[in-house]
């Protein structure tokens, strides 16, 4: 059973001849070498679905916090204690209502984010490899090209799995396409965003702010240039971090593990067991 | 007839000032700090119209010192700093800015609610202080689910309704309490009405969006906090004195409720040695409910148009 992203490499698998099942507590399994598991008939399970709403909640928490300067406001009052009089001219943020949100990668989490955003009267655009007209109808979201999404969105949020294609999906060129007032939210995987390009873009005012729940590496070192900026919020990978959801994830992962050990069908399998009994 | 004179008590965006300049000579208070009572009296002495913020006490004393005053325009929805009855008695119309800032204030209420639920301010501060050493830990910084949780809205005016709408996107179970029942809102947003103690007992999140009146002063005090769940989170975007700060301090310190987030305090600003500032489970923002663009500009323009209407003797 694995938490977090301890890599499960071919070498590690080779040293575990009795390994029958790997149960990931989480939905992303990019850190597990699935090809090797397939060759060895090792089952791989994960915990999809149940953390979608919690992760969507966190996406909105980060988006709203950045839009409305919650962290600088908290610092102003409670950390540096500079609040001396009512000033209607400080800490101006950006309205979220009626702004345009661009969702990159619309799976379960993206769908849940779209639903929340529409309750704020946001205009919601999405880009994904396969269009979903049924979701467009259901949620009132619009399908656009990747470039168009970057160009017109006030908020861009990433909900893609980490693959070769999505590594550094957001780099210098993509940040240059975005609006100068735009805010980027990343709750997918750190390597989806080129962090040095992000730093440059923020420093030069190419985009206005960013909120990330995932970084490259994790944990991020406190002297990383991104942390020197005050228009960035960094959360320590808390996308699924609620009491309720972690309980559900642990239960699901345990069900997967037990099934795998018995050679039975995993309830939530990436690879089903396929080893000689 | 000479041109009207208008006094504006804080800097506004030029687009808003230009609206007033079309009909009046405008004096703008230039400092970042609000004018004192004396300075306010002095500047209102020859003013036909004034544009005020919540920091300006507009009472009988001030009106006595402003014999030419015929229009008051407030840059806010709440008018607890203005003696509206006294102004009306003297035939001076008072304008305010409803509607335009309700959505932005609701956005902020949700920002505070989600931030408190997921502990974003606290965890960020910990991370920047070097706390994040282990990449993933199953139980650190655990927050609470907002989706499908129970939200209790106290006061169902425009802001309360906008909050209800947003909460619907998270499939929250929404209960409200208000002096009047609103069956239309119940139907539109799927709300349930509850008596105040029932709301406090059921809610995972309690949001206050009432005006400040003698009845709502210290609406949330010791007994109310005791009725709330130990896991409950309190959000205040109404007015500071709706919550008894000493009672809130004790409740947060002793775990009677889990966390709170306040955009308004009593007093405002909060004193640097206030015990509330020693708590880890509290986030305070300095009254930024509607501090967002384009809303702030739209609010200023509305207040400017109200002032112009008042000076022309037209309805605000």
TrEMBL record, chain A:
Domain D-isomer specific 2-hydroxyacid dehydrogenase catalytic, first and last residues per copy: 2-268
Name under which the protein is recorded: Glyoxylate reductase
Cited SUPFAM superfamilies: Formate/glycerate dehydrogenase catalytic domain-like (SSF52283), NAD(P)-binding Rossmann-fold domains (SSF51735)
Alphabetical keyword list: Oxidoreductase
GO annotations of cellular component type: cytosol
Pfam families: 2-Hacid_dh, 2-Hacid_dh_C
Molecular function GO terms recorded: glyoxylate reductase (NADPH) activity; hydroxypyruvate reductase [NAD(P)H] activity; NAD binding
Coiled coil: none
All residue ranges annotated as the D-isomer specific 2-hydroxyacid dehydrogenase NAD-binding domain in the record: 60-239
UniProtKB/TrEMBL annotation, chain B:
Location of the D-isomer specific 2-hydroxyacid dehydrogenase catalytic domain: 7-315
The keyword Transcription regulation is annotated on this UniProt entry: no
GO CC annotation terms, alphabetical: cytosol
Xref: InterPro entries: D-isomer_2-hydroxyacid_DH, D-isomer_2_OHA_DH_cat_dom, D-isomer_DH_CS, D-isomer_DH_CS1, D-isomer_DH_NAD-bd, NAD(P)-bd_dom_sf
CDD domains (alphabetical): GDH
Domain annotation D-isomer specific 2-hydroxyacid dehydrogenase NAD-binding: ranges: 110-289
Keyword list, A-Z: Oxidoreductase
Highest taxon of source: Eukaryota
Membrane-spanning ranges: none
MF-aspect GO terms: glyoxylate reductase (NADPH) activity; hydroxypyruvate reductase [NAD(P)H] activity; NAD binding
PANTHER family, per database record: 2-HYDROXYACID DEHYDROGENASE-RELATED, GLYOXYLATE REDUCTASE 1
The family this protein is said to belong to: Belongs to the D-isomer specific 2-hydroxyacid dehydrogenase family.
Descriptive protein name: Glyoxylate reductase
Species this chain originates from: Geodia barretti (Barrett's horny sponge)
Organism placement in taxonomy: Eukaryota, Metazoa, Porifera, Demospongiae, Heteroscleromorpha
